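Apologies for my clumsy wording, but could you write out the amino acids of a protein and the tokens describing how it folds?
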Amino acid sequence: MEAIWEWGSALVLALQPDSGGLALFWRALSVLGDEVFFLLLMPLLFWCINPILSIRVGMVLLLNTTVNTAFKLALAGPRPFWYSAEVRALTAEGSFGIPSGHAQNTVGVWGALATGIARPWAWAGVGVLAILVGLSRMALGVHFPSDVLLGWLLGGLTLAAFMAWSEPIWQRVKDQALNVKLALTFLASLVLVAVPTLVLALLGERDLPAIWLENAAMALPNDPIHPWSLETAVTVGGTWFGFTAGALLLWTQGGLDVRGPWWQRGLRFVLGIIVVIVLWAGLGALFPRDETFVAGMLRYVRYTLIGFWIAFGAPLLFRRLGLVA
């Protein structure tokens, strides 16, 4: 791997911007593959455009994140600014580098959107966006080319698996009683937490080279790295359960009709996202942020509430306020 990292560091250094304006450009591009961006996109789609497409996008995002977290913990590869003191970290990242989650999400999640649009230009756009986001992650000093390539591959495989298996699985469970479906989706959420946890349990927390830790601390003195954290796995599990359970309950009440004038759709999004922010920031401030079992349970609850609000709580509020057809 040393040869790959050496070559990758040279390419990263060549891509790193000299001006603040170019760095801002790369950061803006990088946002288009960010999990937080997609967690804003999911409610926008659900409340204002197409709930079914939102469910597809949300599931692919969460499955992608589970796969990415498991591979990161298994491969335990450095980020360029850990490996070389010459590389500048132009954004803060504390997890392992390989595979790139942004590259993986760009292919998987934007690809899921493209399947809903079903036009050649949409797939062409995904390809261009994937290249640009991949370049942005290298230019920002947080990924080697090998990280990006594996991210693209895993994103494509995850999307392909979802498109091949999601409908057959749904056909097997759709006629089950609601309580059975809720139990199954709860078990699925536990599997999403268990996969990265099992990888870490089997392989253990390996000792990292001292130079990686020194370079990371020098590059980001106020943002210590935390590569062995399972916070992301718990976040995914809670979001999955809340979002899918809410969607199942909503569909027992006829689903959500998102038609309406632009101002009505905009008002739905503003009202709904305010509550998302309150749940995310408010409970985040109240609940502990360490790696204990209790903190993990509370994190699961927090993200369950966020997912449930998106798929069920907000649509009920919109009905009460007369903001849906």
